[in-house]
Amino acid sequence: QVQLVESGGGLVQAGGSLRLSCAASGRTFSGSAMGWFRQTPGKEREFVAAINWSGRVTRYADSVKGRFTISRDNAKNTMYLQMNSLKPADTAVYYCAAASVAWATAPNDYDYWGQGTQVTVSE
Description:
- By secondary structure, this protein is mainly beta.
- Helix content is 0%, strand content 50%.
- It has strands at residues 3-7, 10-13, 18-25, 34-39, 46-51, 58-60, 68-73, 78-83, 92-99, 110-113, 117-122.
């Protein structure tokens, strides 16, 4: 059974940092794109960042560019999201996802999803 498990969420003050992790099990994703999305109540899930199978290609939403860094360790089947200079607008449930293709950014392109981890940024 394929599982993606996020960790590292929590409460932080504006300007602070958090590092999210996404551990995959059940199959290897070393040949697949992986990504982070986030969602707030009443809104659609939005793209945050994606990384290709090798880790050499990344893409970020404009709202997080320059503050967030996505990375992956294929040997550990794990993906990370380093979030710096956090803002209250970053408050959301963050989801990790894995695709069955080498590159993907749209939610519909992703086949596997984690359960989500809450990130709350206070003023």
